[in-house]
Amino acid sequence: MSPTFDLVGQVQLRPGPGHPTLTSTRPALVGRLTQGRRPEELPLLLGSLFTLCGHAHQLAAQMAVDAALGRATAPPAPAAAAALRVATARDQLVRIAHDWPRLLPGAPDEALAQSLVHCPLGPALRDPVAQQSALAALPAWLEKHWLGLPAAEWLARQEQAPVEWATHWARGSTTALARLLRAQHGPAARLATPSRPLSLSSLEAGGFQELAQQLEQLPAHVLPQWQGAVPDTGPWTRRRDASPLPAHNAWMRLLSRLTDLLQLAVPGGEDWLSLGRLQPAPSQGIAWVEMARGLLIHWVQLSDDPAGPRVAACRVLAPTDWNFHPHGVLAHALAGVTHEDDARRLAVAFDPCVAFSVEMPQGETHA
Questions:
Q1: Domains present along the chain, CATH in parentheses
Q2: Residues 85, 314: contact at Cβ < 8 Å?
Q3: Each residue of 166-181: pLDDT tens digit?
Q4: 44, 61, 316, 351: which has the fewest Cβ within 10 Å?
């Protein structure tokens, strides 16, 4: 039988001290698949390669190409930001309703997934008018099926008591989401996750120039560092969040995904996510998009060709690259873990875009 090539890869977690706690088989395909291509091919190609967050990758690739071609002066079209809002809200909905019950220990409740049957933000929405209509209906759906009170009120109470409110709500509400979070609170809150947030504000203040230089010089399999370390990124690092939730344990990181969804759903959600692009050097473009799992960055270098510009190099920095790095925050948190269930909770809190498995120190593997 001929060997198969894994286009996606997976992450292996090995909790405990004294050994590497995290390895990844995610292949570095972007450079090989994009080199020599016409730049206009990149958005569809990369959107197809990264299927789970395809819309964000397609958007980031298009903006990076535009910047490399010298089209970085105009701001991204409002329609692009609106579509990103819809796609990100849908990603968070699916993550919470389908992935949490399936992946979190002791959470096989199907009620959350079943609640999506009548969710207005369905997967087939493409028309901008239909998207806006669905977004307008989303707060009422969230109140009825997940929250038990208006989304804006939920967010206001959380702002008043960032750490205590969600715990109080989960204990008193009868919704399927409250039941799940109530069961996870104790074990997840005990899992410390020191935070090294990837700051978009710092990147915009000159950091993208430095990052582009690293991407140009480093081999494709080497992840650049930021401020001397491997940072973490997620809904807890939104640029426009004036009072971000503390990300000091797995519970708060889980909670930040729900908070992100609510911020996208309420009025003003059209301004919640940041995106942008610049030309760090001639024929180079770098673009960034805040998406469900955190900050996504695309970088492209073009070269001249008699038939028109071609891609000389292309790099993608996805949130999973930072969060599931062998020297990242999650890897350090896993060193203090002795139970498989806790390793799983940490993995879900950091939300990989690929499958993960857990191998406990005694050698027994659990997929």
A1: 10-366 (1.10.645.10)
A2: no
A3: 999 999 999 999 999 9
A4: 44
